[in-house]
Design brief:
The chain is an alpha+beta fold and 203 residues long. The chain has a single domain, classed as Maf protein (Alpha-Beta Complex). The chain contains seven helices and eight strands; from the N terminus they run βαβααββαβββαβαα. The relative contact order is 0.16. This is Nucleoside triphosphate pyrophosphatase.
Length: 203
């Protein structure tokens, strides 16, 4: 669907977020934006923002940028997710060695996925939500880690924390506390409630 002809746009290229919306039959178009995320993260860090606040700021910035590039009246969904290990944000691994290091640090510990979603129209925020599912990795063996890295390969380089819970990465975990769609990057129930209140979805 052409973003400029759609009344609802997801300001993201994330396949997981797109699939979540498609799965609940929410018609939308995708319009990824070229936001300088690293500069905004550093600015949030300099202000002393929490990682949850930083995720919200990134989601807001994406939605604002998309609004400026799309027709007036378009409803825009912005989203962001930050892996929070005791206040430290993880980035996407740069290579397999970095992926191994991230997984070794996460092994046997709990981390939070600060998951932000916002709804904008005409450059103004209408609604937001911050979910914080907690995930606990099991004490997996080095042998399993070798096997996992070999099987998943370079696909892990696009995943913060070097895992995809919707794939083999599920074998890394012993517990997940929180909504599955929030883990995947888009808390849908609150978003759909906001879309109904806005008249975008049927009440």
């Amino acid at each position: 669907m052409d973003a400029k002809a759609s009344s609802l746009v997801l300001a993201s290229g994330s396949a997981a977020r797109r699939a979540l919306l498609e799965g609940c039959m929410v018609e939308h178009a995708c319009h990824p934006v070229a936001l300088d995320e690293e500069s905004l993260r550093l600015a949030c860090q300099a202000r002393g923002d929490t990682l949850g606040a930083t995720a919200l700021a990134l989601a807001e910035a994406k939605a604002e940028m998309a609004c400026s590039e799309l027709p007036v009246g378009t409803w825009v969904i912005g989203a962001d997710q930050i892996l929070d290990l005791d206040g430290e944000a993880f980035s996407k691994p740069v290579d397999r060695a970095h992926a191994r290091m991230q997984l070794q640090r996460l092994r046997g510990r709990s981390h939070i996925l600060q998951t932000a979603v916002v709804l904008y129209r005409n450059g103004k925020k209408v609604w937001d939500e911050l979910a914080a599912p907690r995930l606990t990795m099991r004490q997996f063996s080095e042998e399993f880690l070798d096997h996992y890295l070999e099987r998943e390969g370079d696909s892990l380089l696009g995943c913060v924390g070097a895992y995809r819970l919707e794939g083999m990465g599920a074998q890394l975990f012993e517990a997940v506390d929180g909504a599955h769609d929030a883990v995947l990057g888009l808390p849908r129930l609150g978003l759909m409630r906001a879309l109904r209140q806005a008249g975008v979805l049927m009440d």
